[in-house]
Design a protein that fits this description.
With 261 residues, the chain is mainly alpha-helical. It contains 16 helices and no strands. The longest helix is centred in the N-terminal third of the chain and has 17 residues. The chain is globular.
Length: 261
């Protein structure tokens, strides 16, 4: 049986001190005021981490927390990507209403939420949350079911997302909006609009970028009019970075009009 320690040894064998310095600089780890301060890197590029995930995608779920709680950024990423791999296999059409597959998805979601604080940089959030929580939002679940039946349980799911949005943790807050990358893709704008509204006056630049990105994505995938309606309400007081990201797919003339507002 494969164990987390096997994954850790494999990842440590890929350590690259030269790349490590680049990643520490890129992910803002050096200064106490930086969002990634104190994070530690092995210096492994994402494609190489994905290669390890492919090798160990059948790692028992019980072993994954040992990766999620690692001191090393890339090993935590590997753990979250293994969860993504396991979850997405259970979202195939034939498994949507399957009892065992649903229990498997719910177990992964529960683990993801339990260890969410360990996704403590934007890449860890962005490479995992939409494929897990975003997809879960669109599928039946047993979680939150009072009678134990398989249901959509949207009210319960919204409660889960609200708790993320209202957390004091920047990364959980980012999860609440970036999860809508998947729901936008599937034609459901509700998450995007709800959490864009929640975070429209957020103080952190990383949230300005995330909200603007998801609004832009909603506009291009679902409806530019939905985006325009949001901008009519908020363009005059939303952070400029957020606005620039949101209008990126519009014509130069329309972008200029919104920026002037």
């Amino acid at each position: 049986m494969k164990k987390a320690q096997d994954v850790i040894k494999r990842m440590e064998s890929l350590k690259d001190d030269g790349q490590c310095e680049n990643l520490m600089r890129f992910f803002k780890t050096k200064n106490p005021t930086d969002y990634g301060y104190g994070d530690e890197f092995l210096g492994i590029k994402v494609p190489d981490t994905r290669g390890v995930v492919k090798e160990y995608c059948d790692l028992p779920l019980a072993e994954v927390p040992k990766l999620l709680t690692s001191r090393w950024h890339e090993i935590r990423l590997c753990g979250f990507l293994i969860l993504v791999s396991k979850f997405m296999k259970l979202t195939k059409k034939k498994f949507v209403n399957d009892v065992e597959a649903t229990k498997g998805r719910d177990e992964i979601v529960t683990m993801y939420l339990k260890y969410a604080e360990y996704a403590n940089n934007w890449d860890l959030v962005d490479l995992s949350v939409s494929q897990i929580l975003g997809m879960w939002f669109l599928l039946p679940t047993f979680l939150g079911s009072e009678d134990g039946s398989l249901q959509m349980n949207r009210n319960y799911k919204i409660k889960v997302f609200d708790e993320l949005a209202e957390s004091d943790c920047l990364w959980k807050q980012r999860m609440s909006i970036v999860a809508s990358w998947m729901t936008n893709k599937m034609g459901d704008e509700s998450l995007c609009l709800r959490y864009a509204e929640r975070h429209v006056h957020h103080s952190h630049d990383l949230m300005h970028k995330a909200v603007g990105w998801m609004l832009r994505d909603m506009g291009s995938r679902i409806s530019m009019d939905l985006l325009r309606n949001f901008l009519k309400k908020h363009s005059s007081d939303m952070p400029r970075t957020m606005l620039r990201y949101a209008i990126e797919k519009m014509s130069p003339e329309e972008r200029q009009m919104w920026m002037k507002r």
